[in-house]
Write a structure and sequence with these properties.
The chain has 264 residues and is of the alpha/beta class. The protein is built from 10 helices and 5 strands; from the N terminus they run E-E-E-E-H-E-H-H-H-H-H-H-H-H-H.
Length: 264
Amino acid sequence: MPPNLNGESSSELRSERFNKSDADVTFRSSDGVLFALHKMNLNLFTGGFPSADFKVEDEVIDLPEISTVLDLLFQFVYPQQLPSLGGVEFDTVHALALAAEKYFVYSAMGVCRAHMTYLAKCGQGDTKKIVKYAAIHSYLDILDEVAAFLVSVSLEDLESSITLFPVMLQGPWARYREQWMSIYRDTRWELVMHADRCSDSDCNLYQLSSALQVSREFKPVNLQNIWDFNGMSCGKCSCSKLKEWATGVQDRIKALHKFSFFCK
């Protein structure tokens, strides 16, 4: 939700929520909105803004964040009910999370971390942005939830994904990815062997084998739901051990180490 604004011109917009007459410091968002706050609150609830004894006389401090983000952020520096992030667009939540870390707005840091964890568990939001946010701030609990969704067969994706991690986490990421790729390679080979026995184009397993051989976009994490692939049945060649094989794939996935295991 955009902040409530008042002012006589677009170049002099003021936040209605943060416009107290006794405020002693003013910030301006990147889109030109003024926020008047109290230095004492910033001193008590944050660690990245000017301290209470910092002299700012008739000066406006420019910040790079847009007004929608600052309107949320500054609500965390006053003793009041914290804003809910439910229903807030992902890009705004992401920008808020980065701003909270940047300015050390402690309560906002905790709320944003919890919300990002929720998004990761639900598979919502931009996976790469969540990974980069968590990696930069070493939030391994978030990486444990979202890392699998970043694993791709594509080498191009590998090159782009590894840059999301700081140097100290690039090795753990490569090792974490390799355990998924090992299962993918084994599964692909087992399906190729099946395809050699049954080349009927109506066979679901033959179709899946073909798809895994040509796909550069396949996500190994999708093997968790291996029974969802076209029903995973073969009426032509009567695969008596199909269920045992698919269950074995799922059991191997359940036994995989979390990302944090490789960071020890």
